[in-house]
Amino acid sequence: MRLLILIMLAFGVATASTAAADPIPAQVVNVRPAANVVKRWPHSDRVESKDKGMALLFWMFALASVGGAVFVVTRRNLIAAVMGMVGSFLGIAAIYMMLYAHFLSVVQMLVYAGAIMVLFVFVIMILNRPEDEPVAPSGRAGQVLGGAAILYLVGRLVMLLIYVRAPNPATAVAAPGPTPEGHDWGSVKAVGTDLFGPDAFPFEAISILLLVAVVGAIAIARPLHEDKTIDDEGNPVPDPVTGAH
Amino acid sequence: MSDILFNVGYGHFLVLAAVLFLIGVGGVIVRRNALIILMSVELMLNAANMTLLTFGRMWGDLSSHSFALIVIAVAAAEASVGLAIVVAVFRGRRNVDVDRLTTLRH
């Protein structure tokens, strides 16, 4: 079952990468004469230059993030799964850096690879119980149902990706290149200007959400038998503060 | 073939995000441990974030960064409350197997 899913995922990746990359050169060649393309596209829709080092880094970090994600889904040992998750999130942070989201990349490392990872490890240490049987649907019918659902999802995604076309060069908006203002794109200053200007309300709403989440988490995870006045044998328990019975 | 390998464009980032999202969906469907399911949800949120940032870069729209930051904050809130629920459930019934949590089934 697990092997089947992995094979399907691999197939999806292979089909998707060819499907997404194929139309770009085809359309450029077909729609516009070559000389015109060079003139109209001072910077193309490439994220970075045609430097091979950049491509190598992209594939490295993509491999790290996908490998970590597969690790999360397949490992029976929970700590190993969390370590895979951290690797995946670090890879994703590096990918963010390639998308010129410098600030968000650092936030990603702090929040995910730092805080959330520690939270997960804590909870795993509290529970400290190996999984009996890692794969979910029990029984033949459940396996068939789960396999069909995954097959359907993968099929839909692959079909969607096959029909992806590159944006029309005539209408596409070129990404901001490294112009004097463009250097600032995605920095703390630029994101902060946006966050405290037009997006101030969602930003403040987030602080309320986080407050509610903290209070809710404490309220849910609090031990239930805090205010016990009688222990298991029926003897009165001394008050923890005053010591009186 | 070498074009796909060496000319990394926006499509690569979008496909990577789709693959990560798909792995997350697979984890939610296949695994039965509540902790793994929470981790898979985090993966899916990350993939959605990557898509947002890619499109933001593609169209030169910086507000995608604010959106992504808010998604990260919501993910943190979700993780804290979800893990609190997992701890509470474990305290009551000594396991976090989602297939065995059938008390609310009518």
Structure description:
- The complex is a heterodimer of chains A (245) and B (106).
- By secondary structure, chain A is mainly α.
- Helices cover 66% and strands 0% of the residues of chain A.
- Chain A has helices at residues 2-21, 23-31, 34-40, 52-74, 78-98, 102-127, 139-162, 188-196, 200-221.
- In chain A, α1 runs parallel beside α7 (139-162), α4 (52-74) runs antiparallel to α5 and α5 (78-98) runs antiparallel to α6.
- The termini of chain A are far apart.
- With 106 residues, chain B is an all-alpha fold.
- In chain B, 77% of the residues lie in helices and 0% in strands.
- Chain B contains four helices and no strands.
- Chain B has helices at residues 2-6, 10-30, 34-58, 63-93.
- The longest helix of chain B is centred in the C-terminal third of the chain and has 31 residues, at 63-93.
- The model of chain B has no long low-confidence stretch (mean pLDDT 87).
- At the A-B interface, α1, α4, α5, α6 and α7 of A face α1, α2, α3 and α4 of B.
What is the strand and helix layout of this fold?
The complex is a heterodimer of chains A (245) and B (106).
Chain A: H1 2-21, H2 23-31, H3 34-40, H4 52-74, H5 78-98, H6 102-127, H7 139-162, H8 188-196, H9 200-221
Helix pairs in contact in A: 1-7, 4-5, 5-6
Chain B: H1 2-6, H2 10-30, H3 34-58, H4 63-93
Task: Offer a few descriptive terms.
A: 245 residues; mainly alpha; 66% helix; extended; B: 106 residues; elongated
Helix/strand/pairing class of chain A, anyone? mainly alpha
Quote the average pLDDT of chain A.
72
Helix and strand succession of chain B? HHHH
Rounded average pLDDT of chain B: 87
Distance between the termini of chain B: 55 Å
Q: What is the general shape of chain B?
A: elongated
Question: Beta-sheet strand percentage of chain B?
Answer: under 5%
Biggest sheet character of chain B:
none
Poorly predicted runs of chain B are none
| Helix-and-strand structural type of chain B | mainly alpha
Number of strands of chain A: 0
The percent of residues in helical segments of chain B reads over 70%
Molecular shape of chain A = extended
Instruction: State the low-pLDDT regions of chain A, or none.
Output: 15-46, 173-177
